[in-house]
Amino acid sequence: MTSTTTTGDGTAQARGHQRTDAALSPPDRLPVAGLLALAMAAFITVLTEALPAGLLPQMSADLGVSESLVGQLVTLYAIGTLVTAIPLTAATQGWRRRPLLLVAIGGFAIVNTVTAVSTHYVLTLGARFFAGIFAGLLWALVAGYAGRMVPEHLKGRAMALVMVGIPLALSLGIPVGTFLGTAVGWRVAFAIMSVLTVILIGWVLVAVPDFPGQAADRRLSIGGVFMLPGIRPVLFVTLVFVLAHNVLYTYIAPFIVPAGLAAKIDVILLIFGLSALASIWITGVLIDRFLRELVLASTALFAVAAIALGLGGGSPAVIYAAIGLWGLAYGGVATLFQTASAKTAGEAADVAQSMIVTVWNIAIAGGGLAGGVLLDTLGAAAFPWTLVLLLIPTFAVAWRARDHGFPAVARR
Question: Rounded to the nearest 10 degrees, how much is the dihedral formed by the CA atoms of 338, 339, 340, 345?
């Protein structure tokens, strides 16, 4: 509401509560508290997705189903994200952003609470499907949200800060959640996530600004967003890069057996995780000036790591070094690809992000499927050379997307 008074010379002046959409004038600095709230949302999303994998025996015994059926809780989550992210994001373009963000976050509080109290496998399975739906909506929102909270020259750094929630969930949240689930029960672990989500809702209300939805006459259709210059190269690079990653990551355990490292899988994953964290830090520092160069460097570095694994996969020293290079190549790509998508799509960033979410999940599923076929037919030794074959066109498409998608930035 805005009230007005009239001065003696007849000039109307506004007073009272003024409309303050932060989109009109983002601060020329990082709004750290708000961005960390979005990072916390990413943390909870990843933790909700992956935690059942660490609690298979406990959940299997309690729900009275096999561990393979419990594994389908992760599958249903991914399916929920895959089939709803694009249409749901397109349908909510006109909603104000913070209420929509709170719906997505609040959904996690509900589904994790249902998971914590459910004694029926089918009910738990349904909760996981809806968790995937809320995840797809949230992932589509956070990139555009972070971008609207800062001026153009800080968008990349803002995205990097938000995306730090992902490696923290993988390297800290899941081990702690698994420990708690083993020590005091898996239901307690999911209940704690619900409590954290309720706390996050209050955090968002205090620290995250609201933004208007997109006016009806300015919305683009899904097809219209897909045809924007640069969107298709970004989607292609995302799909094939993440596909290559998941071919190897999903089956890293059988790949390292010939080198005698089967008992060192925890060390391998630790090296990858630490390198990925370093990559995120590097990306955050450089992305606003060198996004294109970072995408090309990440792709090339991943290819070098794959070639090293192909030529020296029987040597533990080569594997350790190559895994470190791989982590450096992969750690920042979520930030890079989502930032490129958001900048390319402009006001249609949320719909474009939903496409990124969709192709990312396709790549995860495709990597598991393709890697399994390769393992059964050609053996694990074929993985590195498959990666190289995938990364060559990835690099070529990113290189050609010089004007739109991964543009070169003029620097003084």
Answer: 90
What are the pLDDT digits (tens) for 297-348? Answer: 999 999 999 999 999 988 999 999 999 999 999 988 988 998 899 889 887 8
Q: Does residue 410 belong to any structural domain of this protein?
A: no
Cα distance between residue 341 and residue 233, in whole Å = 10
Alpha-carbon span 240 to 395, nearest angstrom:
10
Domain of 323: which CATH number? 1.20.1250.20
User: CA dihedral in degrees (94, 96, 101, 106; nearest 10)?
Assistant: -100
**What is the mean predicted confidence (pLDDT) over 276-288?**
87
Say if residues 73 and 52 touch (Cβ distance below 8 Å): yes
Owning domain of residue 157: 29-218
Residues 155 and 35 in one domain: yes
The dihedral over CA atoms of 203, 115, 138, 51, expressed in degrees to the nearest 10, equals: 90
199 and 227 in a common domain: no
**Distance from first CA to last CA of the chain, Å, rounded?**
45
Element (H, E) at 310: helix 265-312
Say if CB 397 and CB 233 are below 8 A apart: yes
pTM: 0.77
Given 218, 252, 285, which residue is the final one in a domain? 218
Token pair listed for 208:
């995250």
- Among candidate residues 218, 249, 272, the one where a domain is terminated: 218
At residue 405, what are phi and psi to the nearest 5 degrees? 105, -70
DSSP helix/strand/coil, 65: coil
- DSSP calls for 37-59: HHHHHHHHHHHHHHHHHHTHHHH
pLDDT top residue among 292 and 77: 292
Same domain, 168 and 250: no
User: Which DSSP symbol is given to 14?
Assistant: E
Spatial contact of 259 and 319, defined as CB atoms under 8 Å apart: yes
Residues in CB range of 11: below 8 A, 6 or more apart: none
Residues 192 and 268 in one domain: no
Q: Which residues make beta-bridge pairs with 12?
A: 6
380 domain-assigned: yes
